[in-house]
Amino acid sequence: MAEINLIDAVTQALAYELQQDAAVIVFGEDVAHNGGVFRATVGLHKRFGENRVFDTPLAENMIAGLAVGMATQGLKPVAEIQFLGFIYSALDQIISHASRLRNRTQGRLSCPMVIRAPYGAGIHAPEHHSESTEALFAHIPGLRVVIPSTPLKAYGLLLAAIRNPDPVIFLEPARMYRLFKQEVPDDGQAIALDTCFVIREGKDVTLVSWGASLYETQKAAFELAQKGIESEIIDVATIKPLDINTILESVGKTGRCVIIHEAARTCGVGAEIAAQLAEEALTILKAPIKRVTGYDTIVPLYRLEENYLPSIARIIEAVNTVMEYS
Amino acid sequence: MERSRNETILQYLSLDGKNLHALPEYLDSDFIKKLYGHMVATRMFDQKAIALQRTGKIGTYPSCEGQEAIGAGVASAMVESDVLCPYYRDHAAQLWRGVAMEEILLYWGGDERGSVFKKALQDFPICVPIASQTLHAAGIAKAMQLKNERRATVALLGDGATSRGDFYEAMNAAGVWNLPLVFVIANNQWAISVPRHAQTNAETLAQKGVAAGIPGIQVDGNDVIAVHVAMKQALEKARLGQGPSVIEAITYRVSDHTTADDAKRYRSEAEVLENKTKDPLIRLKLYLEKHHSWDEVLESDLKQKSQEAVLISVARFLKTEPMNAQVMFEYLYAAMPEDLIKQQQSFLTSRGA
């Protein structure tokens, strides 16, 4: 089986679900004839036709509002927002309608829809193309926020997101799109949402991360292991709703936790995880919880963006700090 | 029916109940009486709802007094399989579609069950964020088109809503995709305290469709016949795949914006009184008296029956117990996630359950 990268896995999942479920509709800016600016939807318009895969006028709020309306008519819209930095005009539709339609009608109407958006820094993109503002959505009752970190997870989690009966914000780390390849069987197998994944076992410290930051996190764990420090790594994958139990179980074993995310620090999802650990696991913690995050700054333009992102060195430094406690 | 914006506003009934044009034949006596009956019942419901607010039985309520002809004219031209996306002053349209009076009271009385609806199951609940419902309507119309269904969607909005980007985005999508969608602007001259002339320099609101490639017309929104005829044509066109329309129905908000508003702060009583002379109910009643032998016996009978229907609904509303509070955790997701189950349990514990 050929190995594919994360963006190919997204395309593969979209094609699988378009094929097996006639209700699935893919749309957004430049997704049809151009195949998406990152090529996530390449070939889908040709294969499935204009009624299943189409371009929209350039208006993000409209794209989200259309998805809400279409979802109430038995369709399963999978909309693309070209970059997360352009989603803000759609927040009214996402927050005021998509997230609450089921609740306000007590299930009479609902929004089985997915909004996909590439996000994150590190791809030398122009201004407004590098944000990691996943916490905005994690704060909203009624939404799911899902972030894949590998081609395998992108395929399985996207299938799960499309099949989910509620709105899902599916954020694809643009830096990971073509970073590495994996074998991804096109078997239609979804991966469970609302679940964190232990992707490396270790006894000394729990590293919690998601999306592109898992790359540096794994590199740091490798280097730490050379010095005898064994890290357990958790890929959060679904940041809303949060599976705190998997994190608690790991921290119960290691007694130490470092949370790594690319998003700005204040009110980032790391703050929520740290708060829940403080509430549930204070007595088993051997050391203070540490966060390695983006700074509370605007993501700098690309000449300086590497300085913003959590680096391997910063992760190792944080782990060394928590290892000083015993 | 389509006119340029310099021509007159579509109108069938004069203020004194004369017909300015011959009415379409399908508008028979029974149907016109049904329209009138609906408008009378809506007015009585509205008055009762205001009274319920004043006595603390429901919360803030937006009166639809004076706009009954728009709701009745619009909804009576729709068929059941069409979909309505209303704003919050559209009780007349919702009631015609089959939404129950007690459901409207439940909604404004602070109870989510008011948006559940036992009929009009695909209609959206009323929309509070201004103009955002126009995009839902575009999405619904797009779905109808993709599924090749002969149905249409109706988006109702106010004059203030025409200033929002959502409205332009929805019209643009409807135009470029030729969607089965009718936008009806209830131009009641006031967006809370901001008058129509301070809202836009556009000569008409109907002309806002022009840039989206959508024909727009103005109708007399206090003339239920004009609204119905314009709407029926626009809907038939939409269902036949001949594209969207914009209808500006010109009316006047004789009430305060809501029961929480005091319109005396920003407009004159004289203006309101002058507009009350154009009341849609008076005009239709005069027409019925002239042409369909309407008399005081029939009028009194109608009012009595309407009043009974309102009172029965109010009684049902008043005896509806509040829901069990844990319901706030329900219906948020199809299946409650574990973190929410924990919060619900903590809520129940805090309540000593």
Count of DSSP strands of chain B: 7
> What count of domains describes the coordinates of chain A?
2
**Into which percentage range does the β-strand content of chain A fall?**
15-25%
Unreliable segments of 5+ consecutive residues of chain B: 1-6
Q: Calculate the mean pLDDT score of chain B and round it.
A: 96
Radius of gyration of chain A: 19 Å
Structural class of chain B: alpha/beta
End-to-end separation of chain A: 47 Å
The description of the largest β-sheet of chain B is:
5 strands, parallel
How would the global form of chain B be characterised? Answer: globular
The overall pLDDT average of chain A reads: 97
Give me the CATH superfamily of the largest domain in chain A: Thiamin diphosphate (ThDP)-binding fold, Pyr/PP domains
How many domain modules of chain B?
A: 2
Mind telling me the CATH class of the largest domain in chain B?
Alpha Beta
Helix fraction of chain A by DSSP (H/I, runs of at least 4): 25-40%
Characteristics of this structure?
heterodimer; A: 326 residues; alpha/beta; Rossmann fold; 2 domains; 7-stranded mixed β-sheet; 5-stranded mixed β-sheet; 12 helices; 14 strands; 20% strand; B: 353 residues; 5-stranded parallel β-sheet; two-stranded antiparallel sheet; 44% helix; globular; disordered N terminus
Description of the structure:
- Chain A is of the alpha/beta class.
- Helix content of chain A is 36%, strand content 20%.
- In chain A, strands 3-2-4-5-7-6-12 form a 7-stranded mixed beta sheet, with helices on both faces. In chain A, strands 9-11-10-13-14 form a 5-stranded mixed beta sheet, sandwiched between helices.
- In chain A, α1 runs parallel beside α7 (151-163) and α3 (60-71) packs parallel to α4.
- The N and C termini of chain A lie far apart (47 Å).
- The mean pLDDT of chain A is 97.
- Chain B has 2 domains: 29-322, Thiamin diphosphate (ThDP)-binding fold, Pyr/PP domains (Rossmann fold, 3-Layer(aba) Sandwich), CATH 3.40.50.970; 324-353, no CATH class.
- Chain B is globular.
- Chain A binds chain B through residues 25, 51, 56-57, 59, 61-62, 64-75, 77, 89, 92-93, 96-97, 102-110, 141-142, 144, 164-166, 194, 241-245, and chain B through 83, 85, 112-113, 115-117, 121-122, 124-125, 129, 132, 134-144, 146-147, 153, 165-166, 169-170, 172-173, 176, 330-334, 337-340.
